[in-house]
Predict the 3D structure of the following.
Amino acid sequence: MNGNDLLTDFAIELAIAINPIKFAQSLGINPDPWQSDLLLASDKRIMLNCSRQSGKSTITAILALHRALNVPASLVLVLSPSLRQSGELFKKVIGFYRDLGKPIPSDIETTLTLQLRNKSRIISLPGKEQTIRGFSGVSLLIMDEAAQVPDDLYYSVRPMLAVSQGHIILLSTPFGKRGFFFNEWSTSNSWKKIKVTADQCPRISREFLDEERLALGEWWFQQEYFCIFGDNLTSVFRWEDVQRAFSEDVETWDFELDSFDSDSNAQEDAEQ
């Protein structure tokens, strides 16, 4: 190999390290437009409200690995409601790491932990408060299926980012009008929000969606594939109506009681 070949290889490696899109492409993934937007985002708080099978887990796994490889001593935590769900996303991380030929050797490589020689760690955990309290200095916190993560867990993990000024990504399909994921998506302006419906995903066909609409019914179909936060099927009142009941922006009517009484008396006299 001559000097020009070495320079070319170095330039390619540098481009991959700097540009997460190039990194994804090196893994055989050509990002969708919204995925490219996510890969290049510098926002510290990001929410992904995405259809099932839209590629949200794949692209966040790529982000997690890119951070660990290129930012030494990074702590990346992957949380999900259950150990099985956390393990599934972590399998994608490990798979990509091996596909790259393990560019940085690992000191620890298990079904739930990857620790690299550059001191970076990627750790997968179930959504249980007692299992995560001891972590601090988190560089990147990824919360998968966030709509199904308990509120108390979400509020307990946020302080992990206080000192490190780390990043947090919440990714999920909606799970009704409940919980912190719905509240943050509906009311907070402190997040970069990305919504991806099934018809925006080139890998999901129109024919498949037509079949799913018939199989699931409209409520489930809209939630799972079109990112709609639906009212609970057992709810008596709509969420919007409940919120309106507590609104201070209520039109008030002023009555002059004396005039009202006079009109009532006049009506009674006329009837007699």
